[in-house]
Write a structure and sequence with these properties.
It is built from ten helices and nine strands. The protein is an alpha/beta fold. It has a single domain, classed as P-loop containing nucleotide triphosphate hydrolases (Rossmann fold). The structure holds guanosine-5'-triphosphate (GTP) and magnesium ion. Magnesium ion binds near residues 21, 22, 40 and 63. Pfam families: Ras (PF00071).
Amino acid sequence: MNQNKLPMFKFTVVGYVNVGKTSFIQQYSESKFQDQKDLTIGLQLITKIVVVDKTKVKLQIWDTVSSSLIIQAGQEKYGDLLKLNYREAAAVFVLYDVTQKISFEKLHEKIKELEEHAPENIIKILVGNKSDEPDEKRQVSQQEAKKFSTDYGFDHYFETSAKSGENVEQVFVEAVRSVIVRMYMNQSFKSSIITIDNNIGDSRFGSGTPINNPPQIQERIRLKSIPQQQYAIPQQQQEKNYKGCC
Ligand SMILES: Nc1nc2c(ncn2[C@@H]2O[C@H](COP(=O)(O)OP(=O)(O)OP(=O)(O)O)[C@@H](O)[C@H]2O)c(=O)[nH]1
Ligand SMILES: [Mg+2]
């Protein structure tokens, strides 16, 4: 690969309301936890450059709309959001809250969503968040989650705490590793990954080229930008939420 190019992996984080999606991303990107009182409105994303097993990649991590907004946005717009959220995603983190059974039961809806909207070869990671909570609050056992992950063909299953940071870094490392392996074993998956210029590490939306194009015939393509006014929260709010991100 051209040394001036970085592969860019899009990761998306989904799950029932309040499971800790935003906190999980924030713990990974900023190593901090704060009590999130606001619902996530629309799609937000952050970028981060990481090195895993000596491979440097740029991650674009998408945080998703709260399910309560489905009602406000209407089914049609929500369908658009879903498509946008999964389009060209290399991996998906499907979160539930180990202290909220309903968030685990609702995973069936996420499975359906993945079947309908996610790329066929997407890496799927099941994440039981809030593992720091005391045992008496636990409503989902590791055994049932493990069985669910096997039954539905997840590539990995972890329990994490966005609060203490337990396992958060490891989940992302495993995701990057799995994407790299799949990329080199599967042509169609490989061609869905784009590369970006090494020197535009700070941009939120990079421009890119399919990873398997030889450099001399690379034609630069732009990622389609998100229709901000329709789906995303105001830029000011994004910057407030993710100040200091890569
Ligand atoms: N104890 C504990 N609390 C957590 C953890 N992760 C998130 N929380 C809390 O759970 C609540 C919801 O966290 P968010 O990160 O906003 O959850 P979300 O899934 O992004 O929520 P929506 O965007 O509204 O769907 C907040 O009060 C967080 O402080 C965790 O690992 N442990
Ligand atoms: Mg959120």
